[in-house]
Specification:
This protein is of the alpha+beta class and 81 residues long. It is built from 1 helix and 5 strands, in the order E-E-E-E-H-E. It is globular and about 35 Å long.
């Protein structure tokens, strides 16, 4: 299926970002990686979760997307850095 998928959000009111990446790691495991932090400083963190399937990863991404939107984040199209 896909080799990777990325989504990126930012909240202009709080000057924060949130990124989700779904990709296969070097060992062949499907991973969902969340990264978050400030747009103004280098502060931030990340969390990696193993997924059983692309379907599970897409379901989790949908939940994350709804939560980010609820908290005032705006999705940034085609963010690739």
């Amino acid at each position: 299926m896909n080799s990777s998928l990325n989504q990126y959000w930012k909240n202009p009111a709080t000057r924060r970002y949130y990124r989700v990446q779904i990709a296969v790691d070097l060992f062949g495991a499907l991973c969902l990686v969340r990264s978050w932090g400030s747009l103004d400083t280098a502060r931030g963190n990340s969390k990696m979760e193993l997924m059983r399937s692309w379907q599970e990863a897409h379901t989790q991404l949908g939940k994350i997307s709804k939560e980010r939107t609820r908290k005032g984040y705006q999705q940034v199209p085609n963010k690739t850095d």
